[in-house]
Amino acid sequence: MKRFETKLSTEMIAAIGGGKWQGKKELKLSNVCEIHEANDESIIFCEQDKFIESAAKSPAGLIITKPEFVNNFPKRSLLISEKPYLSLMMIIAYWQKQDAGEGVAFVHPTAIVAESAEIAEDVSIGAYSVIGAKVKIAKGVKIGIGCTIDKDCVIGKNTLLYDNVRLYENTQVGANCIFHSGVVLGADGFGFLLIEEIQQKIPQVGNVIIHDNVEIGANSCIDRATLGSTVVGEGTKIDNLVQIGHNCTIGKHSIICAQVGLAGSTIVGDYVYLAGQVGAAGHITIGSKAMVGAQSGLASSVPEGARYFGTPAMNANLGKRIAVAQKYLPEMLKAYRKELKEKKDD
Amino acid sequence: MKRFETKLSTEMIAAIGGGKWQGKKELKLSNVCEIHEANDESIIFCEQDKFIESAAKSPAGLIITKPEFVNNFPKRSLLISEKPYLSLMMIIAYWQKQDAGEGVAFVHPTAIVAESAEIAEDVSIGAYSVIGAKVKIAKGVKIGIGCTIDKDCVIGKNTLLYDNVRLYENTQVGANCIFHSGVVLGADGFGFLLIEEIQQKIPQVGNVIIHDNVEIGANSCIDRATLGSTVVGEGTKIDNLVQIGHNCTIGKHSIICAQVGLAGSTIVGDYVYLAGQVGAAGHITIGSKAMVGAQSGLASSVPEGARYFGTPAMNANLGKRIAVAQKYLPEMLKAYRKELKEKKDD
Amino acid sequence: MKRFETKLSTEMIAAIGGGKWQGKKELKLSNVCEIHEANDESIIFCEQDKFIESAAKSPAGLIITKPEFVNNFPKRSLLISEKPYLSLMMIIAYWQKQDAGEGVAFVHPTAIVAESAEIAEDVSIGAYSVIGAKVKIAKGVKIGIGCTIDKDCVIGKNTLLYDNVRLYENTQVGANCIFHSGVVLGADGFGFLLIEEIQQKIPQVGNVIIHDNVEIGANSCIDRATLGSTVVGEGTKIDNLVQIGHNCTIGKHSIICAQVGLAGSTIVGDYVYLAGQVGAAGHITIGSKAMVGAQSGLASSVPEGARYFGTPAMNANLGKRIAVAQKYLPEMLKAYRKELKEKKDD
Lengths: 346, 346, 346
Description:
The structure is a homotrimer of 346-residue chains. By secondary structure, chain A is α/β, with parallel strands linked by helices. Chain A has 2 domains: 2-100, MurE/MurF, N-terminal domain (Udp-n-acetylmuramoylalanyl-d-glutamate--2,6- Diaminopimelate Ligase, Chain: A, domain 1); 112-320, UDP N-Acetylglucosamine Acyltransferase, domain 1 (3 Solenoid), CATH 2.160.10.10. In chain A, 17% of the residues lie in helices and 27% in strands. The first copy, chain A, is built from 5 helices and 38 strands. Chain A has an 11-stranded mixed beta sheet with strand order 9-12-15-18-23-26-29-32-35-37-38, covered by helices on one side. In chain A, strands 7-10-13-16-19-24-27-30-33-36 form a 10-stranded parallel beta sheet, with no helix packed on it. The radius of gyration of chain A is 26 Å and the shape is flat. The interface between A and B is large, with 55 and 55 residues.
């Protein structure tokens, strides 16, 4: 259950959520939750048949539901919407912002900020965070507890860093990004040359560039480029424990699920979807709007808009037909051997 | 080699380890180790034939061994047990507790604790840790260095957080849990809706609930629920670098090995075993006592007690038969093509 | 673009990079970068045909190129080398060291160092780092911000820890190592015994030993041994988000790519190459100079020098032939079934 501190009028809730109100409007609503957790101040939603009964029995103050379900909830306060879930999410998003309020910006006295750093107004910096030389932090940025922003980094407007985020030297971050705890941007790319039986380190002197509206999940890592930049495009969302190798370039509005790993210099287009635990070889291109199934291994490039699956990955339809067909493989082998024996015996 | 500071009498060692003592009892024993590291104050164990010779030659002060091996160690001090390894582990566990002693609870002066937090007696908080508003920490909890416990979190009795653990807002933790360094609980679930060509963030306002006796390995992540809670049941053990998506529910006493990834809303039963790097799709159910082989990809639900393997995962026996049969696939293809050609030529 | 603060003479650049100089020597060179970023103070390299045109058009101050390309760059300052990329990397490595300079060692006043710790000269310790009792840190070591080095750890000469590295109790680290942010060494191995329906923790009292010249990537984890030690040999390089289980022994000069996971007690030889997302079962041996393809699952040991691929992994040639052959499996199944039906109908 998520309780909000700001009071929202039912008029405002209806306006934000969209749809049509039915029932009494003199309600005190203070939280959102799942059906089984609801109390008389709760907003819940009911979009599927299987939840009608429990929603009807719950004491929830407001049920967001769709027109065809209305008759299941007589005498209840309803917000009737074509997309109840979406309506609820819009209400929550609005309410969160209200709760965050003006967000009194505050640099904690234990934060260490280099003299040469340029910190705009309305910037918050949490306890025990350290901001290096010549760092530039734009208006409205919030930096959590125990973060380190190394020298020459730039962070754009209203970006939010949760606790314990590390930006290595010269990382460039856009506006309205969200980085979760444990994110590491700009560690050295993984490059070595075996010279005289020793793995010699290839210096990694490029950087990481993250464009606007990017979200990066907990403990994910994006390595700095050898030369040039490792780039994540606008609006791309990256889940937890993801590895992006040096010199990768990721396009706009792509979705990269948990534990995906991209080797170096791989290019990912726009609106790409990489499901969980996908691995991609280096120096390949994943075309825009491609969708790659979970755990797939991409050894070579993926065409635009393709649906791929498998290790090594292939057209997803073929991949699925193979997945089905392989169940008959032991039987086929037996038949093949029998035939072989018969031929031999002939 | 692990040295202990507390002195344990040989009587106590015998009592804790179980089994029968043989040889002299006036021994000074101060450490446990592998055979090759042993000195005359060491306790070692010997449970397999291949280690008899090295154990016999080692200067170890005490050898824990099984009845049938006794004759290999004449004139040595022995603890004779049906399960030597287990006996040693029980001795170590007891000794560790003695060494930890009363554990003088201590809140480091650099720890920042919100006024509204309720900290019970005998709580330790390490340097540079930050405890947020209205957090409740029960008796005997130990929090390491550089942890952040955000507002409204609850931590049950005697739970141990190593350094650098992050609990986001409203995370609820039971008693006797162990969280290793880099654990992140309660980061936002990974949920977006593509609206007008933009990945719109679905607000994540649920929380994470961890029941008693759960251990979570280094750098593992458990995301908060969208609504409701992501739950880990009593006694479940989670290894390093594991990803648990939002709204998952994991049962009791399950084992989740390193680098496993569970997508959102997946249900895992009790006594489930997920081997390393397993991936599970969202919204599926893994039945109690199911065992899933390493790297398997679970696209659909797994029955109770089943043994599954493969990507997509299937009955492990079939999976293994396919793994064997596929080695003959290139040969079968060759034969198939030959036959095809012959037919065509007919 | 990487700018350096130290000024290097063109003579020095030529000497470090090797090869033959052509063109004017009165140049001011202050940075290295990719071709498209270059300005008149940049050093770039051109080793492939496809980059000749852009390199020729760029304003770069110096082009490192190979003898057969020289005619493409009339009137330009060139460093002519058989291996332009390698020459550039040698220049960068040298320049980085000059920039780091004598590296005025500095223990930040907020660093907390136990009285019993032995800190050699020329050691740097960053803000908010904590050094435990009886830790020994050798000359020239650099410890970043927010690191914790628990009691009885040892760190060898000139080792570099970036921010937020955690060494648990009694971790032993050699000289000239590099650990990136979020590395956790020495967390408990993952060992439990199901006793009376409860997962009982097996105490983990061994440690982690890292030999000289090892690099470990961001957020990687190496667990302490149950007894004895988990060991990483000299010169081995480990990428980001890697999991090394308890009691593993890894040899010298091996390469372990991102998201690899090794279960407990596995032995890895020298000069082994494990590509990204490889998983290895416990208690197996991966022979020296073995190469294992990405995402492979090693269920059993790998011979010395072998090339393996697949899950379960096998000889890479066979693995690739199967990967090709399986594409015909649905067709083969159809034929098989047709034949079966015909036989039945006979």
